[in-house]
Specification:
Largest interface: A-B, 23 and 37 residues
Strand order of the largest sheet of chain B: 1-2-7-3-4-5-6
Number of domains of chain B: 1
Helix content of chain B: 10-25%
Strand content of chain B: 35-45%
Largest sheet of chain B: 7 strands, antiparallel
Number of strands of chain A: 1
Order of helices and strands of chain B: HEEEEEHEE
CATH architecture of chain A: Up-down Bundle
Shape of chain A: elongated
Number of domains of chain A: 1
Structural class of chain B: mainly beta
Number of helices of chain B: 2
CATH class of chain B: Mainly Beta
Radius of gyration of chain A: 23 Å
CATH topology of chain B: Umud Fragment, subunit A
Helix content of chain A: over 70%
CATH topology of chain A: Four Helix Bundle (Hemerythrin (Met), subunit A)
Radius of gyration of chain B: 13 Å
Strand content of chain A: under 5%
Oligomer: heterodimer
Chain lengths: 154, 112
């Protein structure tokens, strides 16, 4: 009863808003988005390396079209992986995580560099190295949340 | 850690007279001390000390006011503000300590 009276009285006063927030949709972070993009980069890299150039004239156009599509997707997904990783690095991880995971900054920095390398090159080695780094991000992320989430790929 | 007492009728009277100010907290960064939607009463003239919960102007978002706890105050009266739920808080760890001009007031009571 007393609480109700207090509430009624307080409702008469003008209301201000004080945000107790974080910048993103609070807590909605998941390294899966980085993994999916990095997997696409690896897949496209393999497809480009496996693509056979046709001997005949008729197959040239189809080959050029397929190769262009593979390259386009590889570049687009490498940028996507970089963007998603950088969001995790700058928005989710906090200074206290750095103390717990001393390699955190280096892992994200190398991840971003590998994304760039995968855009520029057709390198199976770098695409696989990118996946290794994304796996480490996955481990640090879920450990920081106190959850045991198994690493998997599609 | 300092907590807030429930608002008294006297304090509610001060709100109605304009001596204290009513703020509704939005978001999870002050959990578990303050839940999303909880009301705090703010004294704009109170002395601010380490450990106090304060309402402050966001240094980069014009028009946004935030509720955080004062973790430390340095020699030049720079206030380092941190949410009680640091994993889900954007605060001085991101935008740095704020000067006294950014502090609106101290939360002195709450109302559920």
């Amino acid at each position: 009863m007393i609480k109700k009276v207090k509430k009624v009285l307080l409702d008469l006063a003008p209301t201000n808003i004080a945000k107790a927030h974080c910048d993103g949709p609070c807590g909605v972070y998941d390294p899966a988005s980085t993994r999916i993009a990095a997997e696409a980069v690896l897949s496209m890299t393999k497809k480009i390396l496996d693509l056979k150039k046709p001997e005949d004239e008729a197959g040239q156009a189809a080959y050029a079209n397929t190769l262009a599509r593979y390259i386009s997707i590889k570049e687009e997904q490498a940028q996507e992986a970089k963007d998603e990783a950088l969001i995790l690095w700058t928005d989710y991880f906090k200074p206290e995580h750095l103390e717990k995971y001393p390699d955190l900054t280096n892992v994200f920095w190398k991840t971003a560099k590998l994304c760039s390398a995968c855009k520029q090159e057709v390198s199976l080695e770098h695409a696989e190295e990118l996946m290794d780094h994304v796996k480490r991000i996955h481990e640090m992320f879920w450990d920081s949340k106190g959850r045991d989430v198994e690493w998997y790929t599609t | 850690m300092k907590t807030l007492p429930e608002a008294s009728f006297y304090q509610i009277g001060l709100v109605l007279l304009g001596y204290l100010h009513k703020y509704v907290c939005e978001g999870p960064s002050m959990n578990p001390t303050l839940e999303d939607g909880e009301v705090v009463l703010v004294d704009k003239n109170a002395r601010i000390e380490i450990g106090d919960i304060v309402v402050a102007r966001h240094p980069f978002e014009i028009g946004t006011e935030v509720v955080k706890r004062v973790e430390r105050i340095n020699d030049r009266e720079h206030y380092f503000l941190v949410g009680d739920n640091p994993q889900f808080s954007t605060d001085s760890r991101d935008y740095g300590a704020v000067t006294k001009e950014y502090i609106i007031g101290k939360a002195v009571a709450r109302s559920f």
